[in-house]
Amino acid sequence: MKKILPTVLALDLEGTLISNAMSQIPRPGLHEFLTRCAVLFPRLVMFTTVKEDKFRQIARLLVEETMAPAWFADIEYVNWQGETKNLGFVPDAAVGDIILVDDFEIYVHPGQVTQWMQIEYFDYPYSEEDKGLVTMLEKLEMLVSDSK
Ligand SMILES: [Mg+2]
Q1: Separation CA 97–CA 144 (nearest Å)
Q2: Percent of the chain clearing pLDDT 90 (strictly above)
Q3: CATH number of 8-146
C-alpha cells in the first residue's frame, strides 16, 4: 500500500514550540526540530491562536537569541477563524496533505483527527529535560520515510 506523502506541516506555537506567548520560553531542541522539519517537509506553516504581529515579535526574538533558524521569522502564517483549527484555511493545500502538530485536542477540527499529531504539552516548570520536540521529530521522520 502506497501512503500519501504529507507536504505541509502546520505547527502550533504555545505549549508546542514555546511555553506561551507571555513567557516565551523556547522548548528544548527547538532549533534542531525546526531545521529538520524544513528538510522533511516542502512547506511549513504556523497555525496558532497567537495573532500574527505578536507571533512575528516572538519569532524575531527567538531568531535573535539563536533559538530558531533565521527563516523562522518569515515563516508562512495561516490566517484562520473559528473555534477549531480547520486545515481548510491553509491556502493552496488539500487537507489530507497537511499534518497538524498541536498539544491540544480541543483545537482539532471535526473530521480532521487523522491529520493531527499530538505533542506532549510543554508545561511548567519548563524542564531542560523536556523531550516533546525530540519525540515528535522521531515520529515525523518515521512518517516521511514510511510514505516514500
Ligand atoms: Mg498549543
Answers
A1: 12
A2: 93
A3: 3.40.50.1000
